Amino acid sequence: MSDFEPKILIFACNWCSYAGADMAGVSRYQMPPNCRIIRVMCSARVRPEQVISALTQGLDAVLVLGCHPGDCHYTEGNYLTRRRGIMLKNLLETMGFEKNRFQVNWVSAAEGARFAQVVSEFVEEIKALGPSHVSRDKDTGTHA
Amino acid sequence: MSRVKVGVFVCHCGSNIGGTVDVPDVVEYAKDLPLVHYSEDNLYTCSDAGLTAIKEKIKEHGLNRVVVASCTPRTHEELFRRTCEEAGVNRYLFEFVNLREHCSWIHMNQPQEATCKAKELVRLGAAKAARLRPLEIARAQIKPACLVIGGGVAGLSAAGSLAQQGFEVHLVERNDRLGGLTVDLWKLLPGDRPASELLHTLTARVTKNDNVTLYLSSELNEITGFIGSFKATLSTPSGKKDIEIGTVIVATGAVELEPLGLYNLGKTEGVITQMGLEKMLSDGRKDLGDVVFINCAGARGPDREYCGRLCCAVSIKNARYLKEADPDARVTVLQRDVMAFGTEFETEYRKAMCAGVRFIRFSPDRPPTTIGNDKVTGVRIYNQLTGEESDLSANTVVLTTPLAADSGASDLAQMLKVPVDKDGFFLEAHLKLRPVEFATDGVFIAGAARFPADIGEAVAQGTAAAAKAAAPMFAGEVSVEATTALTNPRLCSGCATCEAVCPFGAIEITQDRHGRPVSEVNAVMCKGCGACAAACPCGAIQQLGFTDSQIFEMVRSLARDGDPSGSEG
Ligand code: FES
User: Fold this and answer.
1) Which is the closest atom of ligand 1 to the Cα of A72?
2) I need a surface site. Which of A34, A59, B303, B440 has the fewest CB within 10 A?
3) In this complex, is the C-beta atom of A21 within 8 Å of any C-beta atom belonging to chain B?
4) Are B331 and B395 spatial neighbours (Cβ–Cβ below 8 Å)?
5) Quick check: CB of A16 below 6 Å from ligand 1?
6) Which CATH number fits domain B485-544: 3.40.50.720, 3.30.70.3270, 3.40.50.10320, 3.40.910.10?
7) Is A57 close to B107, i.e. CB distance below 8 A?
8) Sign of the C-alpha dihedral computed for residues B493, B496, B497 and B498 taken in this order
């Protein structure tokens, strides 16, 4: 599946990771064009159902990006994100999705280079994983 | 509500976007998106021409939702929101799409892919925009009065500074006198001036100012409310007293750790703490014979990991005073490391050594032990540098212990809904960026209640907290975040999950008129993080501007709608 181009959703918190993505742009770090960002105020705004719905509707992977632990603009939102993330990974596995299709990571407002690296590595990982069972079915038309 | 009409404005940003993304193609694509009524491109949407175009098209086409696809909301959102407002569209009916930082600049060599991505991003933006609802920015009045809790050095500095600026100040002190721990100190570094002199200056600022109401032997019983209008109940010697204030400064200080039993403290006569020594010195007693100080007593160990910061300087100071008072006495400081930071303390350290005070290093693995049953006669020490064990004669052993959090701090923290760290000290909003503020608006922190602070630091923090508290009080009002959480009481099951995850204590479980528990969000305290909205099992709490329906629609639009590259759809 070397020509597989995954479609990936990123949730980024407004204060750190979205700004980190801005910084990556300002620095002109080049990245694979597979990701689309939805901005939320805090990573803790991401409802597990939103991740599940993205995957069950055929997106290949979801990445939630927040401030580094201890740096959340709202003090402790990213700790909730981290805990929810662990739970959600297990849940997704029981639904037949490889654990790594969903990941949580931290990027600060200053870390343009880190944003580029995290995103590029994530895309590579998902490429290696291939399409999810839902997106595969969708492509071959066997899924509603 | 009239029919939703979305207008999409795609910016070339000179060649910044247009050089990579096929902007006219994106504009054409946008025209076919659901509920999009109008779409155009601009060379620079943020220029006068661009902004005028937005306003004109709003009028001309009756647009009631606006999407600008250009740079980043972090720099330009306010500008476009204002433009919408000027054209009579609520500022929250605007949605930003980032085609520059998040697209053209990071896919410079992939124009086709970048154009395809730009189309999808615009599609997501339009999908969200169609579901936006108008919101209002509320304002809250700020009562120009401050409650200062604690009448030590930090509290006195804060109260004095605010009173001087003309604010009403309520200063509450648990003891029957002002000054906190400093009352018991003898002389201060640098300069060896009596502590009482300094206290006199600080106290006079407060007692001689009519703006300050002083409550001695009093405590805070209860506090409710939020920035601008807190209601507090104090218990005072003359009964309960209700006050209303706009801001609160916590300056409750700390206590000297008294580790009873450690080095036989409290068991063997002659083993005292630094505070005990300061009191003796203040009382004029300086004939203590041979004295051994043991530093880091109760600090920097598994139970209490932190360094007390000030203790080294205190031992350096008092050791020299004793040596100078009685040059024949042998005065020794047993230390694990000497933290004599900055120019002043380093100078003091040298002065003490020159005066004849001996500093001997010990290892925490082989700590010193006191000798003597009823009365202390010496200290046995393993000298880490020479590798030898020896006995020092001692008539007095002074333990240098760190300041520890006051036991009342956790109750106060709960009342104010602010956090404490694992050692019980209050935790500020950000160690470096917001050192004297809590994450909760209108509540500030100063002095050793946060972490062991010396007098200069306590004064600085007290004054800083006063300045921070004065800002909203001068303004007279604060504008309240509009993208706050809101409960739909009909969907709420009253499970209180939202209350548990809210970092700002903005959610309370109250009762509806049938007596059913229901969550209620205080919009003034809510900062709009959305943690509750993500946690609510019933979908009863929504974060305005980031509602489930908006986010789910974006996800749906991304996942299910056709790929705009043309191959599928
Ligand atoms: S604001 Fe970035 S994770 Fe909470």
Assistant:
1) 4
2) B303
3) yes
4) no
5) yes
6) 3.30.70.3270
7) no
8) positive
Q: Do B559 and A80 touch (CB under 8 A)?
A: no
Report the C-alpha gap between B113 and B120 in whole angstroms.
11
pTM for this predicted structure: 0.74
Q: Is A77 in the pocket of ligand 1 (CB under 6 A)?
A: yes
Given a contact cutoff of 8 angstroms between Cβ atoms, the answer to whether B160 and B457 are in contact is no
- Tell me, what's the pLDDT at A2? 57
Cβ contact B102–A25 (<8 Å): yes
How far apart are alpha carbons B536 and B270 in whole angstroms?
60
Reply yes or no on whether the pLDDT at A143 is more than 80. no
Q: Say if B145-255+404-478 and B262-401 have the same CATH topology.
A: yes
**Smallest Cβ distance to A58: which of B72, B121, B559?**
B559
Question: Phi/psi zone of residue B440: left (φ > 0), alpha (ψ -120 to 50 degrees), beta?
Answer: beta
Residue A139: the pLDDT is: 67
Split at pLDDT 50, 70, 90, the class of B419 is: confident
Phi, psi for A63 (deg, rounded to 5): -120, 125
Determine the average pLDDT of the residues in B390-416: 94
User: B219-226 and B229-236: which strand pairing?
Assistant: antiparallel
Are B209 and B160 in contact, with CB atoms under 8 Å apart?
yes
Q: CB atoms < 10 A from the CB of B295, how many? A: 28
| Per-domain boundaries in chain B | 6-135+549-560, 145-255+404-478, 262-401, 485-544
Chain A contact set for B551 (CB, 8 A):
38, 40, 47, 50
Contact A77 B529 (CB under 8 A): yes
Beta bridge partner(s), residue B245: B230
Which residue out of B101, B428, B498, B541 would a mutagenesis test of the A interface target, given it has the greatest number of A Cβ atoms within 10 Å? B101
Q: Where are the alpha helices (DSSP H) in chain A?
A: 17-26, 48-56, 77-94, 112-129, 133-140
User: Is residue A63 within 8 angstroms of chain B, CB to CB?
Assistant: no
ipTM beyond cut 0.90: yes
**If we measure between CA atoms, which residue out of B445, B532, B435 comes closest to residue B485?**
B532
Q: Which residues of B465-476 are buried (b: 16+ CB within 10 A; e: fewer)?
A: bbebbbebbeee
In angstroms, the separation between the Cα of residue A86 and the nearest Cα of chain B is: 15
Check whether B232 has a pLDDT greater than 50. yes
In this structure, which amino acid lies at residue A108? Answer: S
Burial B315-352 (b: 16+ CB within 10 A, else e): bbbbbbbbbbebeebbbbbbbbebbbeeeebeebbebb
Q: Is B50 left (phi over 0), alpha (psi -120 to 50) or beta?
A: alpha
Type of residue found at B240: K
The CATH number of A8-129 is which of 1.10.4160, 1.20.120, 3.30.70, 3.40.50? 3.40.50
Residue-wise pLDDT for A26-70, tens only, equals 999 999 999 999 999 999 999 999 999 999 999 999 999 999 998
Q: What is the topology classification, in CATH, of domain B262-401?
A: FAD/NAD(P)-binding domain (3.50.50)
